[in-house]
Amino acid sequence: MLRVNLRSAGKKLFAAGAAVAISVAFIVAGILMVDSFNSSLTQQLEAEAAGSDLIIETVGLSAWDEETDEPLRDDVPLAEAIGELDGVAIADAIGSGYISEVAADGSTRIGFQVGEQSQTREGEIVQGREAQAEDEIVISSAAVEGRGLELGDTLSAQDFVYAEDAQEGAEPTVVQEDYTVVGVLETQGSPRGYLTAEGMDRMPFSPGPEEIRVQLDAEGDVLAVQAQIQDLITEQAAGLDEERAAGLAALEAQTTEEIVDARIAQQAGSANLLAYLAIGFGSISVFVSGLVISNTFQVLVASRVRTLALLRAIGATTGQLKRATLLEGGLLGLLGGAVGVVLGAGAALGFSAIARASFAPELPLATPTLLAALIGLGLGVTVTVLSALLPAIKAGRVAPMAALRPVGLTPGARRPSAVRIVLGLILTLGGFAAVLAAALLAAGENVPLGLPAPLVGVAGAMIGFSGVLVLARLVVPPLVAHAGALLGRVPGLRVNAPLAGQNARQVPGRTTATASALLVGVTLVGTMMVGASTAQTVLYDELAESYPVEASAAAVDGELAADLAESDLVESFTSAQGAAATVSGERGSAEGRVVLVTEETFSGVARTEGLAPATGEALVAPQLNGEVLSGDGAELELTPHGTGSSGAAEQAITVEGTVASWLPGGTVLITERTVAEVTTAHDGSAWTFEDAQGLTLIRLAQGVGPEESYGLSGLLGDHAEEFNDVGALMRASFAQVIDTVLLIVLVLLGASVLVAVIGVSNTLSLSVLERRREAALLRALGMNRRSVGQMISIEALLLASAALLIGTVLAVFLGWAGVASMVARPDWTVMVDVPWLRLAMLWGITLLAAALAALLPARALSKVEPAAGLSED
After folding, report:
1. Residue 78 domain boundaries
2. Distance (Å, rounded) from C-alpha 314 to C-alpha 599?
3. Which of 97, 54, 60 is nearest to 75 (CA)?
4. DSSP alpha helices (H): ranges in 359-452?
5. Fewer beta carbons below 10 Å: N end or C end of the chain?
6. Residues 107 and 244 in one domain
7. Domain termination residue (choose one: 724, 742, 770)
8. Residue that is last in its domain, among 724, 744, 770
9. What's the mean pLDDT when you consider all of the chain?
C-alpha cells in the first residue's frame, strides 16, 4: 500500500521534502558550528593551562593596604608555602597588569594583559628569544596578528599618580615604564605579554593576582598535593582578617582538566548564544515545515479518495491505510533529513572556512558528527510523521462508498466549531493582553506574576500568535474571497480574480494552512524590522538627550571648515565665536573659553531643540565638573581676558552651570543677553569674542560605522587641541549593532519564509489535481489558457496578501511591545517607529516569491484540454 501511495504522489512530495531538508539543515549547521566554537575554546584553554598540573585562580583576591593603597598579594606567601610541599617542583604566583602602545603624541591604544614568564607554561618561541632583562617583553602570536606588533617595538606601562597634597582639579603625574619586544610566543587566545619577575616589579603599578600555577616533580601525586594545598589555604586564611580570609578561603586548587572545564563554562556564552539562535530560528523553520507537510498530505489524501475507497472495498483495513500514510511521511522525513544533514554540514563547513579566513584563524573547521546526523535524521522523521498524523487519520476514515461518488464532487467545508472560536479568542486576547501588560508595566514593579517583562512578553506573544493561527480559518478564507472580489473591479480581472477568491474559500483548510505558513515568516520578519527601527529611534532619542551635538572642536578657521566640508563623515557643521576667560567655582578655577551662542547656532547640527542656555545660565564642559564645579546648578564666575587680575573683574559674569557631556575641555556656553546684562553698565566691554577662541559644532553623517567614525578624531585633532567626539562614536556604534543584529536575524528568518514559499508552490501544484475538471469546464465555456493560469497566480497573490496584511499588523504591535518590555526605563518613552520602506520591501519580495511559486502550477492548469479534463473519471 505504501508503494501505491508513493506511485500516486510522484514528484508531488519534492517540495515537502525540500521544506524538511531546509529545516534540518538549519539545525544541523547550528549544532556543528557550536561544536566548532566549543572545540576552539577548549583548545585555547588547554593551551593556556598546558605545563601546569594544578592551577589556583586568584583573581578574586582584592584586598588593599590602606596605608600604601596597594593591593595585598596574599597569593605570594601561599605560593611559597605550596612550593615547599613534597612532590611540588614549581609554584609560581602569577600577577597581571596591562600594557599599551603609546604614540608620539602621547595617545595610547587599548592595552592588553601582561603577566610573568613561568616555566609552568608551554609554548614555543617562534621569533626572537625569551625576555631576560627587566625592560624586555615577549608577546603572544595573537598580539602580532591582531595588533601588528613586531620585534623591536616599544610597549609602555603607565600609571597616573597624584601628589599627597594635591588640590582639587590638579593634574596627575604620568609614571611610565617602557619595554622592548624581544620575542614572540606561539599561543592561542587573545593578545598577551610576558615579563620577567624583575620586569613585573618594575611596572609603575602593583600587578593584581591572577593565578598560582603548580608543576609537580616526577614523584608528585596530583590528588595528594591538591588535598594538601586546600589544607594550606585553610591554615593561611585563619591568620587573616575577615575580608581577606573570605577571599583566600574561596580559592580552590584545580587540575588542568578541572580548570579547563570551569573556564569553558564561564566563557561559552557566545557559543551558547549561537546555539540558542540556531535552535530558536530552526524551530521556527521546523514549525513552518510542519504546516507545509501537513497541508501537502491533506491535499494528497483528498486527491486519493477514490483510490483509498477502492482499497477499502477490496479488503484494506483502516489501520493499513493509516500506516501507509504515516510510512510515506516517515520515508519522506528520512530522505529529507538525510539531504538536510548534508546541506547543514556543508553550510557549517563553508561558514567556518570563511571565519578562519577572516576573523577567527584558529577556529577549527566544522566537521560532521554522528550526533548531529542522528538529530537531523530523527528531527526529519519526527516532524513529517507528526505532520502526517491528521491526514493519516482522515485517510483511514475514507468509506468504501466514496468510490461511487462522482469525480470532482466533494462535501462542503464545515464551518469552524464554537469550541475552536472560543479557544482562539481566549488564546489571542489573553496572550496579547500579557504582551501589552509587559510593555506598559516593564518599568514598574507590577509586571504579571512578578516575572521579567521580556519573558512575559515573549510567552504572551507565543500564546497570542497561537490563538491567531487557531482563528485563521475563520478569518483568512473570507478575507481572501473579499480581496478577490475587490480585485475583480480591475478591468481584465473581472472574472479571474473573484473566481480565485472563491476557489480559496471553497477549501478553507488548505487556504488557511498555506497562509499560516507564510504568516509565521512574515510576522517574525516584520516584528524584527519594526523592533529594530523602534529600538534605534529610542536609542537615538536617548543619545540626542545626552549628546545633542555629536562632535565639537575648540577651533574656528578656514582650514577646519574646508576639511569638514570635504569629509564624508560630516553632514553639517556650524561655528560660534568665543573669548578667553577664567572659570571659577566652589572647587577651584581653570583657564578656558566662553563661547557666545544662540538657537540659530544649533540649527542644523543639534539633534534636539531649545539647546541654547537661558539668560544667567551656562552649559559647561564635563572636564570642569569636579575641577571647578560640583554638578548641575552650581554657581560659576566667568572673568574675561583669561585672568582674574586683568582689571576686568568688575565685568565678571555669574551664571548657573549645567554640565554638557558633548563639549570639549574648558568650554562654557552662554548667550548674548547674559553678557549684555553685565556690560551695559560699563562704558566699554571687556569681553572680546573672536574666532581664535571659538567653537565648531558638528553633526555626524548618516550611515557612518564605528570604524569610520574614529577618523573624525584624527580630522579634529589636526586643527584643535580640545575636541569631543564621544557622541559620534556612540551613535555610529549603536547603528552598527542594530543593523548587524537585524541582518543576522533576517537571514535566519529567511529560511522560514523560503519554506513557506515552497509550501505555497506545493499546495498550488497539488490543487491542480482537484481543479482539472474545473479548468476544463472553464475552457469549454470560452476562457483561454492565459486566463486559467492567471487564476492560479492571483490566488497565490491573494494568499500572500492576506498573510502580509495580518502579519504586518501583528508585527507593528509586537515590535513596539518587544522594545518597550526590554527598555524598562520610566524616563524613556517608547514610540513605535514603522520602517515603511523596509516593510514595503518585505511586501514586494513576498508577493514576487508567491507569484514565482505559482508559475509552474499555473502553467500546468492552463494546459488542461477541455475534452480530456471533462472525461476524467
Report:
1. 59-250
2. 92
3. 60
4. 370-387, 389-396, 418-441
5. C
6. yes
7. 724
8. 724
9. 80
Task: Name the most confidently modeled range: 304-308, 398-402, 751-755, 787-791.
Answer: 787-791
pLDDT at 310 > cutoff 50:
yes
Place of cell 573556564: 263
First to last CA, the chain: 21
- CB hemisphere CA count around 673 (13 angstroms): 8
Report angle CA 697, 699, 701 to the nearest 5 degrees: 150
**Same domain? 760 vs 629:** no
> What percent of the chain has a predicted confidence (pLDDT) above 90?
11
150 and 265 assigned to the same domain: no
**What's the Cα-to-Cα distance from 326 to each of 291, 513, 755, 765, 842, rounded to whole Å?**
16, 19, 22, 22, 36
In a shared domain, residues 115 and 222? yes
How far apart CA 315 and CA 130 sit, in angstroms, is: 87
Q: What is the pLDDT of residues 430-457, one digit of tens each?
A: 989 988 888 887 655 555 555 677 778 7
Give the containing element (helix H, strand E) for 678. Answer: helix 672-679
| Spatial contact of 99 and 194, defined as CB atoms under 8 Å apart | no
User: Dihedral through CA 225, CA 227, CA 233, CA 234, nearest 10?
Assistant: -150
- Asked if the structure places residue 449 within a domain, the reply is no
Report the residue count for the chain: 873
Measured over the CA atoms of residue 290, residue 292, residue 294 and residue 300, the dihedral's sign is: negative
Q: Are 709 and 827 members of one domain? A: no
Q: How big is the CA angle at 506 (ends 503 and 512), to the nearest 5 degrees?
A: 95
- The DSSP-derived string for 452-512 is -HHHHHHHHHHHHHHHHHHHHHHHHHHHHHHHHHHHTTSTT-TTHHHHHHHHHHHSHHHHH
Q: Could you tell me the three cell numbers for 402? A: 466514496
Of the ranges 118-127, 507-516, 741-750, which is most confident?
118-127
- Distance between CA atoms of residues 211 and 230, nearest Å: 15
Strand ranges inside 660-769, DSSP E: 667-670, 690-700, 723-724
Asked if 491 and 511 sit in the same domain, the reply is yes
Q: Which three cell numbers stand for residue 116?
A: 610573568
Overall number of domains in the chain: 4
Instruction: Give yes or no: residues 220 and 165 share one domain.
Output: yes
Residue 196 or residue 164, greater confidence: 196
- Closest C-alpha to 507, from 489, 485, 480: 480
Q: In terms of domains, do 285 and 224 share one?
A: no
Q: What is the pLDDT of residue 61?
A: 80
In a domain, 9, yes or no: yes
Q: What does pTM read for this prediction?
A: 0.63
Residue at 446 is within a domain = no
